[in-house]
């Protein structure tokens, strides 16, 4: 059943920050891995595979939590284009958090390589061996890694914009779990007239 509390749960916040660190690490490990040829390549690959599968499992858990408890609404005065961009980028991030590990797993399966998570734990192949599919999935893994990195950067820039410029409680709602207000406080540098309009709007909302 959906709970409508208008705040992020503790589990959602822990998963958000844990997965942000894991995904960033995965992007750098991936690039370092393909750029190295020595024993370092093997060592990084041994981290890359289990960490990627852990991201897949956590992304599914996180998606289930999100369906059960929707995130707090964005401030009502956020321009429509920014609201759309925020929602679109969140869905792209969810899609890539699930697609990237699946593509990595499918790519190794198509290449006929074993997907070992540890010395003894081997995942079953999810697609039949096929060199063409391997080549296509290998390319896709690279292109989607770029898309993930760009979306990640845009997401971070938007978070800083909310936290430092708009100061509308959106970033704080993911940091401390406080419910974000549906209106925003005037940002630093706004004119006296804007500040007055914002106060009036706020007063109307709380019924003064
Ligand atoms: C969120 C999850 C993942 C991310 C962000 C990620 C990211 C990356 C990146 C950035 C690269 C380098 C791409 C390039 O420069 O061509 C890469 C390569 C690779 N990834 Fe992933 N990956 C993920 C999951 C997985 C999983 C689950 C597997 C396998 C089970 C996997 C297997 C590989 C392999 C085999 C390579 C190529 C290694 C090589 O050619 O030396 N990845 N990955």
UniProtKB/TrEMBL annotation:
Cofactor(s) it depends on: heme b
Domain named Cytochrome b561 bacterial/Ni-hydrogenase: residues: 8-177
Keyword Cell membrane annotated: yes
InterPro entries tied to this protein: Cyt_b561_bac/Ni-Hgenase, Cytochrome_b561_oxidase, Di-haem_cyt_TM
Locations listed in the record: Cell membrane
Principal subcellular localization: membrane
Superkingdom classification of source: Bacteria
Keyword entries, A-Z: Cell membrane, Electron transport, Heme, Iron, Membrane, Metal-binding, Transmembrane, Transmembrane helix, Transport
Keyword Transmembrane included in the entry's annotation: yes
UniProt topology in membrane: Multi-pass membrane protein
Pfam families xrefs: Ni_hydr_CYTB (PF01292)
Name of the protein this chain belongs to: Cytochrome b
């Amino acid at each position: 059943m959906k709970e409508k509390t208008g705040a992020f749960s503790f589990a959602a916040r822990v998963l958000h920050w844990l997965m942000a660190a894991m995904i960033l690490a995965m992007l750098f490990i991936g690039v370092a891995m393909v750029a190295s040829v020595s024993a370092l390549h093997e060592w990084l690959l041994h981290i890359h595979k289990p960490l990627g599968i852990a991201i897949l499992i956590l992304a599914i858990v996180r998606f289930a939590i999100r369906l059960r408890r929707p995130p707090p609404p964005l401030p009502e005065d956020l321009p429509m284009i920014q609201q759309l961009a925020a929602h679109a980028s969140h869905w792209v991030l969810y899609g890539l958090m699930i697609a990237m590990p699946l593509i990595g797993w499918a790519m190794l399966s198509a290449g006929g390589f074993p997907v070992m998570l540890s010395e003894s734990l081997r995942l079953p192949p999810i697609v039949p061996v096929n060199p063409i599919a391997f080549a296509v999935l290998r390319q896709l893994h690279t292109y989607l890694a770029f898309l993930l990195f760009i979306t990640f950067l845009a997401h971070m820039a938007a978070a800083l914009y909310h936290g430092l410029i708009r100061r509308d409680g959106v970033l704080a709602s993911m940091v401390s779990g406080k419910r974000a207000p549906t209106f925003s406080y005037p940002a630093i540098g706004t004119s006296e007239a804007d500040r007055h309009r914002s106060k009036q709007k706020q007063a109307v909302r709380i019924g003064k």
